[in-house]
Amino acid sequence: MAQKYKIEQGVKGRQDSLLGVYRRKGVSFASGKGARIWDTSGREYIDFVAGIAVNVLGHSNPKLVSAICNQASNLIHTSNLYEIENQSQLASRLSRHFPGRKMKVFFSNSGAEANEAALKFAVKSTGRGGFVSANNSFHGRTAMALSVTGQPKYWSGFEPLIYRNVEFFDYGSIESLKSHLNRDVAAVIMEPIQGEGGVIVPPKGFLREASAVVHDNGSLLIVDEVQTGMGRTGRMFAHQWEQGCTPDIVTVAKGLAGGVPIGATLVGEDVASAIHEGDHGSTFGGNPLATAAGLATMEVIESPGFLDRVISRGQYLFHSLSDSLRGNESVTEIRGKGLMVGIEMLGDSAKKFADYAFERNILVNVAHDSVVRLLPPLVVTEEEIDSLCATFRSFSSSAR
């Protein structure tokens, strides 16, 4: 499978022309299949990052590759000045996952863009200017998305851009949420599980209760499913685990097209009725190539048994981790849902494990400094999970 590629210059040399906004590992990948990925020297890894929840079908899924190649051979891009058939079909397919409601869709290119659109639409449809978001949240790095991100470390140096009419509540606390609601609040934005914040799962019933109190205030509920959506937790959208949670706006990106850049903002009829021609737009949003990839990705996720396998594989991952980490005093909690799992560790143990795993051909990511975040392709196998758990066990033994 893997081929060896000649590296003509060092990694550092290749980075000289890039702006230094990323802390990169000194490795470049050349090919992948399923949850396996090979670097340019032919070294094989098991991928529990998946491009940060993007490669939901794994690497080089045949249906996705075929859809991309077929579309690219015919038409890559036109313009939203014209009808785009794939775009209409993908919007309809997304809307079907909200039975009894008619959701309208705006396509963009990323999660941050999807959230920017959601915030604009909330202001336009309510006539209000305030927002409430959660402490520890993450919604993107563009100006308004950054303003509603509840982690001030991301604001550093950009404070003049931060929109001031935003308040933050304690995630998971209905009383805290209520204390920040007033008649100027256009919308409350929240993740059904906080991803960048360390895979924080709210108490059972919180999303349903939050939906009710937000609507009682005459405000909109925006649910950011950028990381949790597209089957990641075993449902198409994570908020759907809680009956009675009825968001007015849902944002999606990451896994929607399996690796091709795309974002989507889904809005209910009341919001849609306030949005008119010229209110928003995107040159590349929903282009033929991205939406062809989105259709192929959704077809696989919607296939019989796929989401059931995500649930069962997530249970296997959780139980295997629990067994492997029993007695490890640096682990304080294992949490998550489906194939979105976080392992909270003391001190710098999470970062040490990520480096340890990398040396042993396992890719993991650290979120919020102390959490090993696992976001594997949704097609990860039990054998691959076993390899991860064996690495955790050997790490625990070496730390004693």
Describe the structure.
Pathway: Amino-acid biosynthesis. InterPro entries: AcOrn/SuccOrn_fam, Aminotrans_3, Aminotrans_3_PPA_site, Class-III_PLP-dep_AT, PyrdxlP-dep_Trfase, PyrdxlP-dep_Trfase_major, PyrdxlP-dep_Trfase_small. By secondary structure, the protein is an alpha/beta fold. The longest helix has 20 residues, at 306-325. The chain folds into two domains: 11-61 and 305-399, Aspartate Aminotransferase, domain 1 (Alpha-Beta Complex); 75-301, 3-Layer(aba) Sandwich (Aspartate Aminotransferase, domain 2). The strands form three sheets. The chain has a seven-stranded mixed sheet, with helices on both faces. Strands 1-2-3-13 form a four-stranded mixed sheet. 34% of the residues lie in helices and 17% in strands. The model is unreliable at 1-9 (pLDDT under 50). Strand 7, helix 8 (206-216) and strand 8 form a beta-alpha-beta unit.
